[in-house]
Specification:
By secondary structure, the chain is mainly alpha-helical. It has one domain. It is elongated and about 55 Å long.
Length: 86
């Protein structure tokens, strides 16, 4: 995660249902660093996962129709690999 402890922060107000807030408050990270740090980390993680999914979709779209051809190319080379003796 990105370290945001020294960055200027803008206060925001959000609504969270009671059960979710209770789960957040029980989390050890929340107890150690506070709700704001927990929420920053959660949002950073969410955005990173979302970005990764978008990239994966783009890769699948670009190479999806060629997957069998690419697999055939790779399989030919895999059989030729030589691994060092232990």
């Amino acid at each position: 995660m990105m370290d945001t402890t020294n960055m200027a922060a803008k206060p925001v107000q959000i609504s969270i249902d009671r059960e979710l807030l209770a789960r957040i408050d029980r989390d050890p990270q929340t107890r150690k660093q506070g709700r704001s740090a927990f929420m920053r980390d959660a949002v950073e993680l969410y955005l990173a996962v979302k970005h990764r999914r978008e990239v994966d979709k783009q890769i699948a779209a670009a190479f999806g129709h060629k997957s069998q051809d690419l697999l055939a190319d790779v399989e030919a080379w895999v059989g030729e690999q030589a691994w060092p003796e232990k």
